[in-house]
Amino acid sequence: MRTNIMITISTLLSLIATPVLSKEVKVTSPNGEIKVTFSDEQDQLSYNVEFNNQSVIDDSALGLVFKEQAAFADGFKITKVEKSFNYSKWEQPWGERRVVEDNHNEVIISAVNAELNNAIYSIRARVFDDGIGFRYEVPKQDNYKQVEIVKELTEFTLADAQNSKAFWIPARGWNRYEYVYNETPVYEAQHVHTPVTFKTSNNVHLSIHEAALVDYAAMTLNQRRPGKYIADLTPWYDGIAVKTQTSFKSPWRTIQIADDATGLLNSDLILNLNEPNKLGDVSWVNPGKYVGIWWEMHINKAAWGTTDPNAPHGATTENTKKYIDFAAKYGFDGVLVEGWNEGWDGDWFFNGDVFSFTKNYPDFDIKQLADYGAKKGVKLIGHHETSGNVTNYRNQMQDALDLYQDLGVEQIKTGYVADGGNIKRIDDKGIVRKEWHDGQFMVNEYLFNIEEAAKRKISINTHEPVKDTGLRRTYPNWITREGARGQEFNAWGTPPNPPEHIPMLAFTRMLSGPMDFTPGIFDMGFRDQNFQQNGQGAKINRPQTTLAKQLASYVVLYSPIQMAADLPENYEAKMDAFQFIRDVPTDWEQSIALDGEVGDFVVFARKERKTERYSGHDWYLGAITNEDAREIEVSLDFLESGKRFEAQIYRDGDKANWINNPYDYFIEKKPVTSEDVLTLKLATSGGTAIRFKALN
């Protein structure tokens, strides 16, 4: 078993002062650029944040409100302060980079209210060079044994709100996290999901989110006075936010801070605030690439069910064998099959009560296919769609996971398709309750699935999930998830994902962790056969992207498992471009965001991790733009000095544009070194993908 901690220097300096003479407690980042000040001067605890001697978060309140007990609000005074620092390096079993550096200063502030029988709680804060995290820690104490939290008083008061931009999606809507991101003045971003990104007038970039969301309600942000956001916790069906008992701790409230947009992308703050791997040896968690019976249903070539009059059943033994053959021929690890199990006939969106997770349709021989794939070195990837009925799934989960374990299935894609607030569960009294995907109940339900899967050495790819908060560090079999508007909206969305969607995701949703976006669409004309006649500005219901941008997405949108989402015949029609998908790895030794602006463009370079398949010497680059064509100069100084590389460049052709010429791409090769600079020419909604193959 590989150790998580490689180098650790922590808690070498500790200061305990009781009582505390000063009403203010300050803690800075290791490089001194970020300063956080906690205070009890206003009777209620508060904090503020400075970056490079300028305020980014003005005085903001802290506290908790309970249903039965007195609130942790007015009257609390700081009584003890403990300070320490940590420098460590730890290793990810898979990830954007193999080795992660954790360098922070920490303070634990204890506050007591003498009038409430010495009620006590603590704020633990960690300040990194890339931002801060703080959380509530409430010990066992009289009068606060069983508690129900109805509100957090946590505020985030933006110092430059009047002149700042917000990049956001609405919170607590019917479509969960699956919205197009908005770019607006801050005052228009009223109730938002996290992570939410802000850009100030002096180019400081902030992302507010949370880390280590366990047994607690997810935090949304609700803007009250202009620029003042409060933590708005997603409630249970009965309006209570969190049901718990002391002692307990909240998730970390996080603020990532950078002086440019790429600084956010190069941050490891969320991961560093999560606990180390709890699963032990996770060598059975395997990054890789897959194909599957999925896209053909979205474009109405096939159906999930067996009784659709307009399309044949997709998940048949014969069709799955074709995908297994394709995967084996071109080096893919797995084949995802959706629609294999009983329950898909009819309107499956509402079939949560009748899904079986162990019974296959008669035209799908799951045992035969598992054996067939094993002979070819290709794994079946399981699929469990719950349609939001989690009680039905829970009742069958053990048997369903056992079945997959017996068949050698190593990964499962789970689905929780249901409107926001419409997750169906049956309580211990037999009463139907409806919950939110990001409420405390579902936070625990998702994690239960992860833990049960881990017992069988199975990894989970959650769709319609709770947002990512870095728990992949603690549970490395939570290998990826959806949690945003993915590729399927390009099949039937009205409108589809706009050209700025991916460069927006990179600086918003992707800050929380990996996403199963399912890139790689090569046929743009499945829905609009006459797209070449559409003029500039036409509303085109198909992928609003060039083919080269689809290739670049494999580098820009990180996930340790990546799908080649299109149909096999569409790849075989363009084998030269398909080669990049075959080559690109999904697990990285190092990742560096080189350039970009939120919603405009983004450039990533990543170095492959050494495995049986990959040498560990090659680098890959992905560059993506919005609706604006642009030229970007990229220094190759990330390449190892003194080494020669062959740049295998997949770029937009000179006449490429997403509206009427998305297939214009050009492939070229040239020798390069770390001293070279490349000029990348990106078409409208275009991209460039490059493999830097080491020559020596």
Number of strands: 40
Mean pLDDT: 95
Number of domains: 3
Q: Which consecutive residue ranges, at least 5 long each, have pLDDT under 50? A: 1-18, 530-537
Assembly state of the chains shown: single chain
Radius of gyration: 25 Å
- What helical percentage do the residues reach? 10-25%
- Beta-strand content bin: 35-45%
CATH architecture designation of the largest domain: Distorted Sandwich
Shape estimate:
globular
Top keywords for this entry?
TIM Barrel; alpha+beta; 35% strand; eight-stranded antiparallel β-sheet; 696 residues; Beta-galactosidase, Chain A, domain 5; twelve-stranded antiparallel β-sheet; globular
List the helices and strands and how they pair.
Layout: E1 5-10, E2 15-17, E3 24-28, E4 34-39, E5 46-51, E6 54-61, E7 64-66, E8 77-91, E9 99-113, E10 119-128, E11 131-138, E12 146-152, E13 155-158, E14 165-168, E15 182-185, E16 191-192, E17 196-199, E18 205-211, E19 219-223, E20 228-233, E21 242-245, E22 248-249, E23 252-258, H1 261-265, H2 269-272, E24 288-293, H3 295-298, H4 317-330, E25 334-337, H5 366-376, E26 379-385, H6 390-407, E27 411-415, E28 423-426, E29 432-435, H7 440-455, E30 459-463, E31 478-481, H8 489-492, H9 501-505, H10 547-556, E32 561-563, H11 568-572, H12 575-583, E33 588-597, E34 601-608, E35 619-625, E36 630-635, E37 645-652, E38 665-672, E39 677-682, E40 687-694
Parallel strand pairs: 24-25, 24-32, 25-26, 26-27, 27-30, 30-31
Antiparallel strand pairs: 1-8, 2-8, 3-4, 4-5, 5-6, 6-13, 7-12, 8-9, 9-10, 10-11, 11-22, 11-23, 12-21, 13-20, 14-15, 14-17, 16-19, 17-18, 18-23, 19-20, 28-29, 33-34, 34-35, 35-40, 36-39, 37-38, 37-40
Helix pairs in contact: 4-5, 6-7
